[in-house]
Amino acid sequence: MIEHSHLKIIQALHANGTLTEAANALCLSQPALSHQISYLEKKLGIALWEREGRNLRLTQAGLLLLETANQVLPVIAQTEKMLEAYREGKQGILRIGVECYPCFEWLTGMIGQYMRQMPGIDVDIVQKFQFSGLEGLLNHHIDVLITPDLVRKDSIEYEILAEYQLVLLAAPGHPLADLQQITPELLSKETLLTFPVPLERLDILTHFLTPAHLEPEKLKPIESLEIMLQMTALNRGVCVLPEWLADIKNKDLNLKKVQIGDLGLFQKLYLAMREADNAVSYIREFIEVGRKTAESSSVQLIEKV
What we know:
Blueprint (H helix, E strand, L loop, with lengths): L3 H13 L2 H7 L4 H15 L4 E4 L2 E4 L1 H28 L4 E7 L2 H17 L3 E6 L6 H6 L5 E4 L8 E15 L10 E2 L1 H4 L3 E4 L8 H7 L8 E4 L3 H9 L4 E5 H7 L6 E5 L4 E10 L6 H16 L9
Parallel strand pairs: 3-4, 3-5, 7-11, 8-9, 8-10
Antiparallel strand pairs: 1-2, 5-12, 6-10, 6-11, 6-12
Helix pairs in contact: 1-2, 1-4, 2-3, 5-11
């Protein structure tokens, strides 16, 4: 009863807000789009949208159909891409979700090697999700997810790609720069430069400052890693990065690395995938190339969860 074109119509209505703009987005005339909507509503026996002045508002039924469209259309698009890859003689397509800034930097360092070893695999990289990365994996919008967070879910399996240490970076001459290690009390007096992610995903908070019932004097989100490092070099604050990433990016800035806490602060990098895909050969190869790349970068590797 519900067709592919119907799902695209409901998405266009929601995204564009007016009938004219939705028709333009779908390359249809306004009368043709109105006719299709009316036909669908008559077929379903329920209204999907209503007017609010010039704008359109989806009804509860329309929102339900929109939710279905958001789940189904990416799966159809992926199937079309897979079929196109098969038609071109390729083995398949790997859609990689990236859920953190260091994850993307890690992927940048290994993806070229993977594509050289697997020339028959197309690669898509997704950084911004309509849903969370894990939901994208469960809904088949992506095939694997690179993430620092292990969230147990039925039908989802995790592989540990690497374990690395987080370090504090400070400019030469900064009061913290020459310390052997940083304490929560000292860090709480500083401006902490971070990536713009939810606070509960900042390990320096959840595993270091929050347990000590402390917080930074100021938290300043920075979108760009390069700008974050430049601001650190100019004494505008301090930042925390994986040590391997700090070593790569710090070659010309001469920032000082400081251990976090008595024992250091360590994190794991995971690959999440659907259990059914565990044996897919090009996913297994992606994991192996990732681990070898991390090993060559002096990142400590550990075995599968």
